[in-house]
Design goal:
This protein is mainly α. It contains 7 helices and 11 strands.
Amino acid sequence: MFSCTIDQLRLTGLQLGIALCIAIAGTPVALNAQQPTLVASAPAPAPESSSIAAPSEPAEPSTLTTADLPDAPSALLYPQSTQSTVPSKPIETTDPNAVSPNGTQQTKRILGIVPNFRSVSADTKLPPMTPKEKFLIAGKDTFDYSSFFIAGIQAGFAMNSASYPEFHQGLKGYGRYYWHTLADTADENFWVGGLGPIIFKQDNRFYTLGHGGFRKRALYAVSRVVISRKDDGDATFNFAEIIGSGAASGISSLYYPTKYRTWTKVGQKWLTSDIIDGFNFFYKEFWPDVNKRIFHTH
């Protein structure tokens, strides 16, 4: 009786296995009859060599052939969520206010105050600027109303720390700090953002990276101090920044007290200018994300 029962179970299992294989093999036909645009591939049933079925190879992922779907034909179903959203190449436009394909945008001012005229949204490419346009945008940065306000704050900190004791304190002292700060700002802006890019034929704009991790984007931003673009878009050493800020530091020593006209003092101001510009690139890189997530605008 026990032997008979085992034989019946084996026969029943074999019949169920055959029925299951027939059902699987017939699935693509049924799907094609109902939805001709969906193509599904299934593995062929393994031959029954014994009562215990061998493990089958994993099925290939399904593919779509419908032209109306968001991904290209024959795109794998499961990797869609991990596909890169970065365009294969930047979108060329003549609109300086263009929105990035990722939905962020570099605004003309940060927090409605700080000038941001030379920043370009991520994955967009603008035509080269003419020498006149480079010079004008440097003037726009220099004589913007916010420049006078920011210079006032900087002058206040400098006077509070007695950075130049020869300027003294009080209203007259503050006035000396203030006009020196304004002169330094104009000097730096025209050499780094205007004359330097004209002489070395460089693009004086900051192109936002806009994608990747925090470390990658931060490193990209601060490295713009030494890496820039030519007018034709090729990468180049940032001569306008390094040489321009050095020239500005040297010129500024001419209107400071004589004791500050030394190589050490000029070098300190030169290095400080480049560090400040690196920080400026850093917060400009992440400003579009902050603006979108916190203020819910482009």
